[in-house]
């Protein structure tokens, strides 16, 4: 396979701190988000406001319910013997001895750790992006606009493209390629808006230290990922600010997921599986995150995926069982299983949230309840294997897809889940130029975020709307996210196709998907 | 034939004499207590008391029923019921104006009973269904999600299972259920009256006039059954079966006069005594010592030292038929002041908060005495409200020298499984107001769980405050109001729409993802 | 000798039991609607029309007490004597007729056959219409105060069938709401179907079997098909057999092929048809008269396919049914037209009336009812001219009191035995109790705050941490 001929790529460990003269982006440090949270916690009433919002607190993550469970636990009553407390037992152990004054600090600290984990993951992503192999086309195309860099060639494309394709190619059907007319020079789509083409003078020159533009002009140019920015994107995302202020215990799950990936990046199999096990123990659905973790571990240790699974999966199961055993020792009975995982799976509590389950099961007839419950739960878990198989070279994209599927289709989603996968999306910036519906998606997300609380208020407080209003907004929100997932999925597939079909990159190709 | 008649009659006479000499097996008493309050309202309390001796109870087990109605006897035998209390009530008892009565009851239906058998839950279900059929009420709605098991309240009156009968499986268990919304009307009165030995043909029950009974400010029918130990070790147990009816009528509203008589308030006169009853009496109580006349003149009048005059009219065979009892007043004005010596404790329960998501429940307990009163507070809240115990607060209006709250017992609700139960022992400080408050979240119930008139809301049963009485007395219980809470409703016309819309979204997602994961891009044409 | 003893014993017994007869007759309510109380302001027909002498009728007058409390006590000595005579007779009979062919049946020993009873008349009791008992299922499906008239409709029919002889134990009355004791009712504990307020339909003796929220489609279909929870009491079951004529009357708001129950759910015409079909398969009826008073009522009986069902409806498909008049004091309409005009005919009937259903149907005046009533007779074996109104609305018992005896046909003699009368009680259905999961009632004491982490947990946690550290080093 051909490698890019440029020699000025950095081959060392990822450079987290970029030089400022390299990329014209503003770097936002992580502490801004932390300061924002602390300010909102202590100088405003925002925390008690968000604690009660259904968008941020669900029956399985609500702080008020956690306080109730803690209170029952500390006063000798079984916390799981009722219909109020549905959260994991070990959280009770965490907060049992914590003085109440420190609790906001704990949640802010959780967010900080999440941000740091994201920064490390982002730098890994940056490294893998730079290391990505883009096979060069056999015939180099020319550009309409000068000047090319010294590495670029100046040849015109005078020959007709041959039938052969170079590089790893999953597709072999090229018999329908027609001959291009002679003298045809096309600008690849991603270069149309490239500053290099429009404002050639501002294009930075390649030096030894800075990475130069890729030699291959057919390869898309992506702004380099600033790892610190990703952390700030997460921290400054209003959804995650709201989740932190609401003191939602979802933050523990997010922390565990992020660190599962982080330790996988570091190659620490045991700790990675421990973190994923903690995440699964807390919320059940993040068990799916084994897939991206295993993919990362396999890649880092250069072993096959099945071998990696054989070593990692027993670790995961062992840790999960140990956690359940610890919970049993804490509570003294197995009652918590029905109250935690039973509630997540069987959805007896139909409090509204931004998901699809609640109204569906409010209006469902009893005869069909079990069937639809099974369908909905299977829908969440069924995509793990196919997604990991198709995108096995992009484990962080797999993580994005799986967290997004969880955020839409889990039984009690909240805005914290949305914040998580939006951060993963921001790491995959290279897909933005391939996305087709981004305007629709982001306007719909904005629209739903604004109207959702409004319609909720109309339904429950003003009495001038009914449940359908809020339900419709959850549908819009879910639809926007669905379109986002499919759009990015197709974008990634398209990008992969471009990567592995170098000769067709510059052609205006009509693709069908079959 | 005459000599055969004579012989037979003498034989019969001897048998009857022997019968009379034996211990009284069953006895039946009737009592009507009429009390006029200062505000002019008349409380009529009817007591129909039957005592069934242990030997008669044994006969009842062989299907031999005399005074105990067969339907009741069979019910308590089939379901192993030791003690049963069932009340049907409409209206709220006004403790401030009317004081306390053992016949005050919470609105709707309240049923509590002690069982001494295994499988108490299936027995309880059977009992509620059987009583529903007997009394034409929908008691079958008292199921496990509405049944509580109080730990401190509703204790039996000391008569426990004898030591020889007490085993692990049949130690007595208590079950309590209430339906705050149950309507009480003639169809409940009819079967209840049919249980009386003389029905409405004779005795004080001949005063029953449905049009007046259900026009009262308060009416409550009760069926009470409890065991009575006849020996020290309680090896022999009889049954006391009491049927009670309390009605508060207002002669000021009916005739615009403070004077009243049985004819004016019931439109009936007392026909004659029930021949089966051993004692029948009418007791009239007036909260004054002068300014009125009893009509007719009672054979027995006394003052009770608290400002009340009590007249007793025993009814027997010699009493003339169509007897009318009443009072005429010389001063026809009524007095609406509240006498705190007679109504020294009061409770008021209400909902707080706004909106369809959450709210609060508060109870104010007023103690107007200058001594502390120990009470037990019990309430059973349906599972549609999720109570938060960590928000429970008990506050008093005065600085307390001793702790107000004693033991607290709490049972959190399980959705569709059981109600929340909160039971507390409190000591109300003298001359104070104690407020108990707790927050809750409203549950979002399924479409099928809403009643047909969903916008009315759900009812919450009354809380029970038991005054821990001195030894020897029965516990007095006062009941708060029932509450009405509106839960957010889904759109009832939408089930199919919701299912199709959500499933469309899911299908859209699944289809797109499926395509993404299973298909490949293929170049088709290359355009210019 | 036997005959002589028997005859003399009989005469003695008759004399002895005379006061008991009187007392017993007096206990039969002269007005079954008002039962144990007097002063009904409507028709007060005597229930016992074959009682014969005016002396017996005098006892039914309202002024005298309904029961002579002393009657049973006066006859006690005679009862003792009767029983002892009985013992003597059975003993002699038993010992003397062991080898004889004469039956040892006790009743036959006492009653000697009289040849002049008309066998045919007695046989005819059971042949005319084929049914031996009557049941009525009266359903009001509407809730709320403004549907007062539907409850009044149902109670009017209840009043009629009770008056004509169906006892409460054979009537299932389903009322969706309580309007009599509704706070809006200006006249508490009453329901009137006429602005003149002549008859209080609620009266003093009403038994409502299904009330309020219990009136649901599911309960109605369970009632018809007989599939109940084992705990459902007897009074809520339709205990019909294959010789029962059932009157099913429904009223409320309906539409094309549906009837609304309590504004929350609907029953379809197919559901009713299938329920009747199940009844037919289970031999739960002899004949059904299905009467329905709603809008587009005829659509509800369109789908019935089981035999022996006659149906009458207030309006054809596409037509509404209307209320008759409003009582301004109550504030709402008090009766519907179809039921009103039916009652005009039904209220004139007496217990032994021979009016036919066809005569009832021919009184339907489309103009007055303001809709076209529908009748469906194709599933009914007889012609409406041959079917009596009292076949469905009345509970004529076909009982004749006689002092003479009737010799049963020889074919029945050998198989007849004295069976102990088995009276299943109201709670007898609880023999087979339903399985109820044990309750999870578990109120526990709230203790004061304390550190609740137990020692095993701490040890487990330490072990867990050690394991994690070890594994992260190794793997």
Automatic annotation (TrEMBL), chain A:
<protein>
    <recommendedName>
        <fullName>GPI transamidase subunit PIG-U</fullName>
    </recommendedName>
</protein>
<feature type="transmembrane region" description="Helical">
    <location>
        <begin position="90"/>
        <end position="115"/>
    </location>
</feature>
<feature type="transmembrane region" description="Helical">
    <location>
        <begin position="271"/>
        <end position="295"/>
    </location>
</feature>
<keyword id="KW-0472">Membrane</keyword>
<feature type="region of interest" description="Disordered">
    <location>
        <begin position="1"/>
        <end position="20"/>
    </location>
</feature>
<feature type="transmembrane region" description="Helical">
    <location>
        <begin position="371"/>
        <end position="391"/>
    </location>
</feature>
<feature type="transmembrane region" description="Helical">
    <location>
        <begin position="397"/>
        <end position="427"/>
    </location>
</feature>
<dbReference type="InterPro" id="IPR009600">
    <property type="entry name" value="PIG-U"/>
</dbReference>
<dbReference type="GO" id="GO:0042765">
    <property type="term" value="C:GPI-anchor transamidase complex"/>
</dbReference>
<feature type="compositionally biased region" description="Basic and acidic residues">
    <location>
        <begin position="9"/>
        <end position="19"/>
    </location>
</feature>
<feature type="compositionally biased region" description="Acidic residues">
    <location>
        <begin position="149"/>
        <end position="159"/>
    </location>
</feature>
<feature type="region of interest" description="Disordered">
    <location>
        <begin position="137"/>
        <end position="171"/>
    </location>
</feature>
<keyword id="KW-0337">GPI-anchor biosynthesis</keyword>
<keyword id="KW-1133">Transmembrane helix</keyword>
<dbReference type="Pfam" id="PF06728">
    <property type="entry name" value="PIG-U"/>
</dbReference>
From TrEMBL, chain B:
<protein>
    <recommendedName>
        <fullName>Gpi16 subunit, GPI transamidase component</fullName>
    </recommendedName>
</protein>
<keyword id="KW-0812">Transmembrane</keyword>
<keyword id="KW-1133">Transmembrane helix</keyword>
<dbReference type="InterPro" id="IPR007245">
    <property type="entry name" value="PIG-T"/>
</dbReference>
<keyword id="KW-0732">Signal</keyword>
<keyword id="KW-0472">Membrane</keyword>
<dbReference type="GO" id="GO:0042765">
    <property type="term" value="C:GPI-anchor transamidase complex"/>
</dbReference>
<feature type="signal peptide">
    <location>
        <begin position="1"/>
        <end position="22"/>
    </location>
</feature>
<dbReference type="Pfam" id="PF04113">
    <property type="entry name" value="Gpi16"/>
</dbReference>
<dbReference type="GO" id="GO:0016255">
    <property type="term" value="P:attachment of GPI anchor to protein"/>
</dbReference>
<feature type="transmembrane region" description="Helical">
    <location>
        <begin position="496"/>
        <end position="518"/>
    </location>
</feature>
UniProtKB/TrEMBL annotation, chain C:
<keyword id="KW-0732">Signal</keyword>
<keyword id="KW-1133">Transmembrane helix</keyword>
<dbReference type="GO" id="GO:0006506">
    <property type="term" value="P:GPI anchor biosynthetic process"/>
</dbReference>
<comment type="similarity">
    <text>Belongs to the peptidase C13 family.</text>
</comment>
<keyword id="KW-0472">Membrane</keyword>
<feature type="active site">
    <location>
        <position position="253"/>
    </location>
</feature>
<protein>
    <recommendedName>
        <fullName>GPI-anchor transamidase</fullName>
    </recommendedName>
</protein>
<keyword id="KW-0812">Transmembrane</keyword>
<keyword id="KW-0337">GPI-anchor biosynthesis</keyword>
<comment type="pathway">
    <text>Glycolipid biosynthesis; glycosylphosphatidylinositol-anchor biosynthesis.</text>
</comment>
<dbReference type="InterPro" id="IPR001096">
    <property type="entry name" value="Peptidase_C13"/>
</dbReference>
<dbReference type="GO" id="GO:0003923">
    <property type="term" value="F:GPI-anchor transamidase activity"/>
</dbReference>
<feature type="region of interest" description="Disordered">
    <location>
        <begin position="412"/>
        <end position="441"/>
    </location>
</feature>
<feature type="active site" description="Nucleophile">
    <location>
        <position position="295"/>
    </location>
</feature>
<dbReference type="InterPro" id="IPR028361">
    <property type="entry name" value="GPI_transamidase"/>
</dbReference>
């Amino acid at each position: 396979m051909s490698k890019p001929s440029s020699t000025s790529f950095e081959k060392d460990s990822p450079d987290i701190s970029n030089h400022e003269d390299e990329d014209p982006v503003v770097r936002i440090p992580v502490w801004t988000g932390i300061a924002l949270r602390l300010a909102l916690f202590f100088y405003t009433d925002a925390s008690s406001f968000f604690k009660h919002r259904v968008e941020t607190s669900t029956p399985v993550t609500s702080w008020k319910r956690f306080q109730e469970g803690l209170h029952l636990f500390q006063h000798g009553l079984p916390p799981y013997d009722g219909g109020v407390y549905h959260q994991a037992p070990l959280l009770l152990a965490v907060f049992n001895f914590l003085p109440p004054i420190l609790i906001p600090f704990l949640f802010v600290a959780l967010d900080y750790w999440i941000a740091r984990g994201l920064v490390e993951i982002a730098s890994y992503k940056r490294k893998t992006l730079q290391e990505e192999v883009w096979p060069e086309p056999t015939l180099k195309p020319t550009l309409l606009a000068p000047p090319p860099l010294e590495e670029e060639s100046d040849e015109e494309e005078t020959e007709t493209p041959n039938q052969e394709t170079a590089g790893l190619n999953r597709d072999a059907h090229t018999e329908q390629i027609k001959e291009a007319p002679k003298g045809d020079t096309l600008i690849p789509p991603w270069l149309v808006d490239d500053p290099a083409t429009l404002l050639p003078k501002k294009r930075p020159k390649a030096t030894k230290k800075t990475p130069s533009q890729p030699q291959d002009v057919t390869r898309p140019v992506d702004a380099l990922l600033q790892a610190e920015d990703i952390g700030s994107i997460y921290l400054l995302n209003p959804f995650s600010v709201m989740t932190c202020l609401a003191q939602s215990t979802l933050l523990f799950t997010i922390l565990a997921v992020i660190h599962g990936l982080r330790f996988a990046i570091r190659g620490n199999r045991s700790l990675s599986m421990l973190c994923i096990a903690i995440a699964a123990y807390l919320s059940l659905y993040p068990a799916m995150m084994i897939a991206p973790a295993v993919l990362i571990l396999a890649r880092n240790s250069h072993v096959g995926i099945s071998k990696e699974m054989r070593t990692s999966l027993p670790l995961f199961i062992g840790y999960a069982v140990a956690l359940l055993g610890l919970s049993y020792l804490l509570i003294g009975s197995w009652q918590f299983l029905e109250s935690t995982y039973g509630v997540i799976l069987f959805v007896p509590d139909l409090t509204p949230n931004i998901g699809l389950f609640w109204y569906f099961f409010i209006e469902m007839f009893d005869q069909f309840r079990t069937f639809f419950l099974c369908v909905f739960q299977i829908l969440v878990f069924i995509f793990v294997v196919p997604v990991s198989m198709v995108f096995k070279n992009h484990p962080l994209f797999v993580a994005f897809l799986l967290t997004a599927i969880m955020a839409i289709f889990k039984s009690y989603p909240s805005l914290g889940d949305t914040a998580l996968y939006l951060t993963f999306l921001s790491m995959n910036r290279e897909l933005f130029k391939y996305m087709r519906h981004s305007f629709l998606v982001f306007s719909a997300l904005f629209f739903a975020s604004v109207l959702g609380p409004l319609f909720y208020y109309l339904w429950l407080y003003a009495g001038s709307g009914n449940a359908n209003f809020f339900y419709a907004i959850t549908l819009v929100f879910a639809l926007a996210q669905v379109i986002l997932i499919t759009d990015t999925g197709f974008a990634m597939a398209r990008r992969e196709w471009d990567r592995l079909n170098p000769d067709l990159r510059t052609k205006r190709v009509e693709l069908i998907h079959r | 034939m005459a000599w055969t008649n004579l012989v037979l009659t003498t034989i019969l006479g001897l048998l009857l004499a022997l019968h009379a000499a034996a211990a009284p097996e069953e006895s039946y008493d009737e009592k009507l207590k009429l009390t006029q309050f200062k505000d002019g309202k008349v409380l009529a309390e009817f007591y129909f008391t039957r005592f069934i001796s242990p030997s008669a109870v044994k006969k009842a087990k062989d299907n031999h029923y005399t005074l105990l109605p067969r339907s009741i006897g069979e019910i308590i035998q089939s379901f192993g019921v030791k003690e049963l209390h069932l009340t049907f009530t409409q209206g709220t008892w006004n403790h401030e104006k009317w004081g306390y009565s053992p016949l005050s009851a919470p609105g709707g239906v309240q049923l509590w009973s002690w069982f001494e058998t295994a499988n108490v839950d299936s027995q309880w279900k059977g009992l509620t269904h059987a009583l529903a059929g007997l009394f034409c009420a929908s008691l079958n709605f008292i199921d496990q999600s509405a049944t509580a098991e109080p730990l401190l309240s509703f204790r039996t009156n000391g008569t426990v299972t004898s030591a020889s009968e007490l085993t692990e499986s049949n130690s007595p268990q208590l079950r309590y259920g209430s339906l705050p919304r149950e309507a009480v009307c003639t169809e409940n009165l009819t079967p209840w009256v049919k249980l009386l030995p003389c029905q409405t043909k004779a005795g004080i029950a001949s005063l029953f006039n449905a049009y007046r009974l259900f026009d009262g400010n308060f009416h409550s029918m009760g069926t009470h059954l409890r065991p009575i130990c006849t020996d020290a070790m309680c090896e022999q147990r009889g049954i006391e079966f009491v049927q009670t009816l309390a009605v508060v009528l207002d002669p000021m509203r009916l005739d615009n006069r403070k004077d009243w008589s049985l004819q004016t308030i019931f439109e009936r006169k007392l026909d004659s005594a029930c021949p089966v009853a051993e004692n029948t009496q009418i007791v009239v109580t007036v909260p004054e010592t002068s300014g009125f006349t009893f009509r007719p003149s009672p054979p027995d009048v006394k003052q009770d030292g608290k400002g009340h005059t009590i007249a007793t009219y025993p009814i027997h065979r010699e009493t003339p038929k169509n007897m009318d009892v009443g009072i005429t007043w010389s001063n026809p004005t009524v007095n609406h002041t509240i006498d705190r010596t007679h109504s020294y404790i009061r409770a008021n329960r209400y909902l707080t908060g706004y909106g369809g998501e959450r709210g609060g429940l508060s109870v104010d307990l007023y103690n107007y005495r200058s001594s502390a009163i120990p009470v037990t507070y019990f309430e059973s809240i349906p599972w549609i409200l999720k109570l938060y115990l960590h928000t429970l607060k008990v506050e008093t209006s005065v600085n307390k020298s001793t702790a107000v709250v004693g033991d607290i017992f709490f049972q959190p609700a399980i959705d569709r499984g059981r109600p929340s139960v909160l039971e507390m022992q409190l000591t109300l400080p003298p001359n104070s107001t104690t407020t108990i408050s707790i927050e809750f979240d409203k549950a979002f119930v399924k479409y099928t769980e809403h009643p047909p008139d969903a916008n009315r809301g759900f009812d919450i049963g009354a809380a029970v405050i038991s005054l821990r009485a001195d030894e020897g007395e029965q516990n007095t219980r006062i009941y708060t109001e029932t509450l009405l809470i509106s839960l957010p409703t889904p759109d009832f016309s939408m089930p199919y729409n919701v299912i199709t819309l959500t499933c469309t979204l899911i299908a859209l997602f699944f289809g797109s993802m499926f395509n993404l994961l299973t298909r490949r891009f293929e170049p088709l044409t290359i355009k210019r | 000798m036997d005959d002589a003893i028997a005859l003399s014993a009989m005469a003695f017994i008759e004399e002895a039991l005379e006061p008991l007869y009187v007392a017993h007759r007096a206990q039969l309510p002269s007005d079954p609607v008002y039962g144990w109380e007097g002063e009904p302001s409507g028709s007060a027909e005597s229930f016992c029309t074959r009682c014969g002498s005016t002396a017996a009728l005098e006892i039914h007058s309202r002024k005298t007490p309904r029961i002579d409390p002393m009657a049973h006590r006066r006859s006690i000595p005679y009862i003792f004597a009767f029983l002892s005579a009985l013992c003597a007779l059975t003993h002699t009979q038993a010992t003397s007729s062991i080898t004889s062919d004469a039956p040892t049946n006790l009743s036959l020993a006492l009653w000697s056959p009289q040849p002049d009873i008309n066998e045919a008349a007695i046989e005819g009791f059971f042949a005319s219409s084929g049914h031996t008992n009557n049941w009525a299922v009266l359903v009001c499906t509407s809730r709320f105060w403004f549907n007062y008239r539907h409850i009044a409709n149902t109670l009017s029919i209840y009043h009629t069938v009770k008056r004509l002889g169906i006892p409460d134990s054979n009537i299932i009355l389903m009322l969706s709401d309580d309007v009599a004791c509704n706070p809006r009712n200006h006249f508490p504990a009453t329901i009137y179907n006429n602005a003149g307020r002549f008859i209080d339909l609620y009266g003093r003796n009403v038994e409502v079997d299904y009330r309020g929220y219990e009136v649901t489609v599911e309960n109605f279909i369970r009632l018809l098909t007989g599939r109940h929870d084992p705990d459902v009491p007897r009074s809520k079951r339709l205990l019909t057999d294959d010789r029962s004529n059932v009157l099913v009357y429904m009223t409320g708001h309906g539409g094309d092929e549906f009837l609304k129950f309590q504004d929350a759910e609907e029953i379809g015409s197919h559901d009713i048809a299938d329920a009747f079909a199940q009844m037919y398969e289970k031999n739960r009826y002899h004949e059904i008269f299905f009467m329905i008073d709603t809008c587009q009522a005829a659509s509800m009986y369109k789908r019935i396919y089981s035999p022996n069902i006659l149906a009458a409806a207030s309006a054809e498909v596409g037509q509404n049914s209307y209320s008759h008049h409003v009582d301004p004091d109550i504030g709402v309409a008090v009766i519907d037209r179809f039921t009103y005009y039916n009652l005009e005919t039904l209220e004139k009937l007496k217990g032994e009336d021979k009016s036919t259903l066809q005569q009832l149907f021919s009184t339907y005046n489309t103009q007055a009812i303001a809709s076209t009533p529908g009748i469906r007779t194709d599933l009914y074996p007889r012609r409406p001219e041959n079917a009596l109104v009292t076949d469905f609305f009345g509970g004529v018992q076909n009982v004749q009191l006689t002092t003479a005896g009737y010799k049963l046909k020889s074919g029945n003699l050998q198989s007849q035995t004295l069976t102990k009368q088995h009276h299943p009680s109201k709670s007898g259905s609880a023999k087979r109790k339903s399985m109820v999961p044990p309750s999870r009632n578990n109120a526990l004491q709230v203790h004061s705050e304390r550190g609740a982490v137990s020692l095993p947990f701490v040890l487990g946690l330490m072990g867990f941490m050690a394991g994690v550290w070890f594994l992260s080093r190794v793997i």
